[in-house]
């Protein structure tokens, strides 16, 4: 039973981090690597069309545990499902 609780806890933690139980993104999400010059607002506009840009930025921040809008080239980000 302890193993089941541990596994369940691990899956919940992974899902909260935007990672599925086998290390890939949660269904409907995608992983992108930030390129030089990209911004969260630009990523939100590209990958979350139809959303208000500020809402898309907030969704990306929440999915990645970001406290600011600053991102760096090479950083891997989870883009939440639309």
Automatic annotation (TrEMBL):
InterPro entries: LysM (IPR018392), LysM_dom_sf (IPR036779). Residues 1-16 form the signal peptide. The keyword Repeat does not apply. It comes from the Bacteria. Keywords: Signal. The keyword Transit peptide does not apply. Residues 30-79 form the LysM domain. Pfam families: LysM. This is LysM domain-containing protein. It comes from Nostocoides australiense Ben110.
């Amino acid at each position: 039973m302890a193993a089941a609780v541990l596994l369940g806890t691990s899956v919940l933690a992974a899902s909260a981090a935007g990672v599925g139980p086998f290390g890939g993104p949660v269904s409907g999400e995608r992983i992108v690597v930030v390129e030089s010059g990209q911004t969260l607002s630009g990523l939100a506009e590209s990958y979350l069309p139809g959303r208000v840009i500020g809402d898309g930025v907030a969704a990306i921040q929440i999915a990645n545990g970001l406290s600011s809008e600053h991102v760096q080239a090479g950083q891997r980000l989870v883009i939440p499902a639309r």
